[in-house]
Write a structure and sequence with these properties.
CATH superfamily of the largest domain: FAD/NAD(P)-binding domain
Distance between the termini: 49 Å
Strand content: 15-25%
Structural class: alpha/beta
CATH topology of the largest domain: FAD/NAD(P)-binding domain
Helix content: 25-40%
Shape: globular
């Protein structure tokens, strides 16, 4: 769906059961006690027996501390502030981060004729289409997106997984490092530091690319095995594997005097300025167990791999919500009994 279609889809859903949405309202503080929760907002206070926070995982763009060390002549942007190549001034553009946003922006800038350097760290590479079917269809069909949070060995790592290198264009084209390199984008390793007027990049790019290629091959092997086991080989296109990532010999430095703009596509962090710090760990992340907070009646939805691998997708919030509502209903019943 396009952005307009997504907005219309959500509005239609709201209208389907006349949800009492309050738009343009900001929550400023949530205070919890044995009697429930006081939610203070720009539209006045609410008293609630339960609170569900569904603000998502991408509320605040993450900018590394090294940004403060860059020369003053460089304009610094995040994906939230970026709109199109026309807003970018003269000079080379350094895009830091090669997951979904960074790769798409580097691609758009290169196709607009801009000189682009893309700094690449850990990333997840996938083809947009495989054997004639969308890669999301595959991941849904084989059950990968339904994998639960209590079924993975390293949940913390799974929740930190970079966003997929995919673009939602109507033609469903595959977008990867090979694509942008062919467009003239200079591919370098992770932005590691600054020395004088030179940006320095890690020499680990080859390792990152090799790892991404291997993980992609393992997933495609899994898809082929599923197709064979379920008699789908005759219905699907022949398995054609993407070629390995080839970025040549990457430069380890870049003269910052040639750079006019740095775009920090270094991910997002959820923020909870309205919550007491006791709900957060030492790195500011919300402490929860599958969306259930330690404080009775406090819940969260929409975070990466909250209960399922698809928890942060629109079609993943629904199943998570069903399970949380069961827990929430039990909590409300217990509160009702206590009030009698």
């Amino acid at each position: 769906m396009t952005a307009v279609e997504v907005a219309a889809h959500l509005d239609t859903y709201r209208r389907s059961f006349d949800a009492p949405v309050r738009s343009g309202v900001g929550v400023t503080k949530i205070t919890s006690s044995d009697g429930g929760h006081l939610v203070e907002s720009t539209d006045g206070p609410w008293s609630a027996r339960a609170v569900v926070m569904a603000t998502g995982a991408c509320s605040n763009p993450h900018v590394p501390t090294i940004a403060a060390e860059l020369p003053e002549h460089i304009t610094q942007l995040t994906p939230i502030a970026y709109r199109n190549p026309g807003q970018i001034g003269d000079g080379r553009v350094l895009v830091v981060g090669a997951s979904a946003s960074g790769l798409q922006i580097a691609d758009e800038l290169a196709r607009a004729g801009r000189d682009v350097t893309l700094a690449v760290g850990d990333h997840v590479r996938l083809p947009r289409m495989y054997r004639g079917m969308d890669i999301h269809w595959w991941m849904d069909t084989v059950g990968l997106l339904d994998e639960r949070f209590d079924e993975v060995e390293d949940l913390a790592r799974a929740r930190r997984l970079p966003s997929l290198q995919l673009v939602g264009s109507p033609e469903r084209r595959t977008l990867g490092l090979n694509t942008v390199a062919e467009e003239g984008v200079q591919i370098v390793g992770r932005f590691a530091g600054r020395s004088g007027h030179r940006a320095q990049f890690s020499g680990s790019l080859t390792n990152f690319c090799t790892s991404a290629d291997l993980k992609q091959q393992r997933l495609l092997d899994q898809l082929d095995e599923y197709a064979s086991a379920h008699g789908l080989d005759t219905e699907l296109a022949a398995p054609e594997r993407p070629v390995h990532t080839d970025v040549g010999t990457p430069a380890l430095e870049l003269d910052l005097r040639s750079v006019g703009t740095v775009l920090w596509a270094t991910g997002f962090r959820p923020t909870y300025p309205w919550l007491d710090a006791s709900h957060l760990d030492g790195r500011g992340r919300l402490i929860h167990d599958g969306g259930v907070l330690a404080t009775p009646g406090m819940y969260v939805l929409g975070l990466p791999f909250m209960r399922r691998r698809k928890s942060s997708f629109i079609d993943g919030v629904g199943p998570d919500a069903v399970e949380l509502v069961d827990h929430l209903s039990t909590h409300l019943d217990a509160v009702a009994v206590g009030l009698r």
